[in-house]
Amino acid sequence: MTTNPAAHDAIASNLRLQCPALANKTYFNYGGQGPLPTPALEAIHASWQRIQQLGPFTGDVWPFIAAEVNSTRRVLAELCGVPPHRLALSENVTSGCVLPLWGLPFDNGDELLISDCEHPGVVAACVELARRYGLSLNTLPVKHLRGTAATTDQAVLEGLDQTLTAQTRLVVLSHVLWNTGQIMPIAAVADRLQQHPQHPYLLVDAAQSFAQIPVQQAAAAADIYAFTGHKWACGPEGLGGVALSERVVQQANPTVIGWRSLKDESRADLSAVDPFHHDSRRFEVATSCVPLMAGLRRSLELLDQEGTEAERWQRICLLSGALWQRLQQTDGLNPLLEVPPATGLVSLQREARTKPAEDVQRLGEKGLWIRDLADPICLRACTHIMTTDEEINSLHAALSL
Ligand SMILES: Cc1ncc(COP(=O)(O)O)c(C=O)c1O
Description:
Layout lengths: L4 H13 L8 E2 L10 H17 L7 H19 L6 E4 L2 H9 L9 E5 L4 H14 L2 E5 L8 H15 L4 E5 L13 H10 L5 E5 L10 H6 L2 E5 L11 E5 L1 H6 L39 H15 L3 H20 L4 E3 L9 E6 L5 H10 L2 E2 L1 E4 L2 E6 L6 H12 L1
Parallel strand pairs: 1-11, 3-4, 3-5, 5-6, 6-7
Antiparallel strand pairs: 2-8, 7-8, 9-10, 10-13, 12-13
Helix pairs in contact: 2-10, 3-10, 4-5, 11-13
The structure holds pyridoxal-5'-phosphate (PLP).
């Protein structure tokens, strides 16, 4: 895949120019955190000012707060292809995974099947859940899949068939693997699980998919589809969401309980048998930072102005494909994938004596930012729609040294 520099730079420039973070560095850590565009920061500021004008704690401010919460829930639910009552607001990916996870109705002896590419925080929550409730753990191998979408999808489903047992009650699988960048066939996995006698729950970490690739089909098929606004969506840190299946909303208990989980938030009724909302709000807790919501919505609007979801994904892949090709053609640089990436994540290994963390530091000293990963040991660079061909050239040159 080749790129047309002029076309890219023209298309990408609008949003790029609005991101101060991109003005003084060569940035490839979108999978870690996206840059916050100035209009999003201004929207946060304006919302915060409005709250101070109306409140902060007055009868006048509550309609504004309610409108902010409702419109944000609506926007995120629509992006996930679920109705708003199935979209809980959260602070980050991890809490979106863990709050509903711990409320699922597990029985002693149930098995959790976790892919070998999950994020340490989510894995740790599963391990501790298993320890406390007498559950067992099993691994779904996906880390070794480095080929085309078709072969990967087939291998994931075969791997699932081989690792599911009669006791499996939950499968944990990211939509986009944060280390290799492979896309997992979430809807097909959900279909398979539906045919299993236990109909295991499907928890999907959407940290690397939300606002990068189309997510509606996967989000609507999963039981728990948790994402954050601060990575590919280029929103502020501290705000995310989780799309929940109807059965999770109905069957899972609230875990970290607070006034927002309650049907009647004004009083704690000691005799109430079922005081909790029977929608996504049972997983919301208490006071959170409302001004962030305007910021995330603004960032999502700005992304929309750069093209449709499909067009943006295509552009991201054109850029990651160009980087992958350059790496592939360079002695001593080995991309993890055997084919051009289907997302913006490009992981690679260097045949050099330096450790990846040292490479990250060396490139950082030149104002060029990528990250290293521990498993598999590698470097990871991410392209977003704001990435330029010049940046890809600089990265390639710096890695080739
Ligand atoms: C796949 C994946 N899951 C979870 C996380 C943690 O995200 P958060 O801090 O929003 O919970 C990350 C962050 O890098 C991630 O890449």
